[in-house]
Design the sequence.
């Protein structure tokens, strides 16, 4: 299947798994789509690991960590699924469609995980989302829908610089901004003992 305004560097259908894996190191129109989510995946896994296990405020087994784990699961799932989609979508036409359907499933897990984290870390502070965060949410959508820059210069961004790659990079910045936002809310609430129960109190409640 061909994308609008992308003319070349397509992989042929019915690749083997090994050919798919080798292709992510070759200049195809999926190469940077893969790497722009593969590298952020390990970046966020590292950040979530530090947040959970190297947290100076609470221990890793404190119940108040759980909403962040929900967010971490959603982020990891959407990035890993995106990597699988862009890396393996030429195995067959049927698998291509399956991978893209799973992309939407992962997107819902990510949104659900972020909503849970916001409910526990942000809503108690009644913090209003500032305009910068609204921009981060809108920019990826604008690039993905407008097909800019390849709409303006068709065929010039077949390998690098196409709108979907900008969509990925801006998604990375959006998730990073969300993580900073959640860490701020988490730290603010943890420093308010009257709001957050201790681990012992939380276990007694449970």
Sequence:
């Amino acid at each position: 299947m061909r994308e609008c305004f992308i003319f070349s560097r397509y992989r042929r259908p019915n690749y083997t798994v090994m050919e798919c894996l080798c292709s992510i190191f070759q200049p195809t129109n999926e190469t940077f789509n893969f790497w722009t989510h593969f590298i952020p995946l390990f970046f966020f896994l590292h950040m979530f690991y530090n947040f959970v296990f190297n947290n100076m405020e609470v221990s890793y087994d404190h119940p108040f960590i759980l909403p962040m784990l929900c967010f971490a699961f959603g982020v990891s799932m959407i990035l890993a699924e995106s990597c699988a989609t862009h890396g393996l979508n030429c195995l067959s036409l049927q698998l291509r469609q399956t991978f893209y359907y799973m992309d939407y499933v992962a997107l819902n897990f990510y949104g659900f995980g972020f909503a849970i984290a916001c409910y526990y870390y942000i809503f108690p502070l009644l913090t209003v989302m500032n305009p910068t965060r609204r921009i981060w949410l809108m920019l990826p959508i604008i690039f993905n829908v407008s097909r800019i820059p390849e709409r303006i210069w068709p065929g010039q961004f077949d390998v690098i610089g196409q709108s979907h790659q900008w969509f990925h990079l801006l998604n990375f910045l959006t998730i990073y901004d969300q993580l900073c936002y959640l860490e701020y809310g988490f730290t603010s609430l943890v420093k308010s003992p009257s709001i957050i129960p201790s681990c012992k109190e939380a276990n007694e409640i449970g």
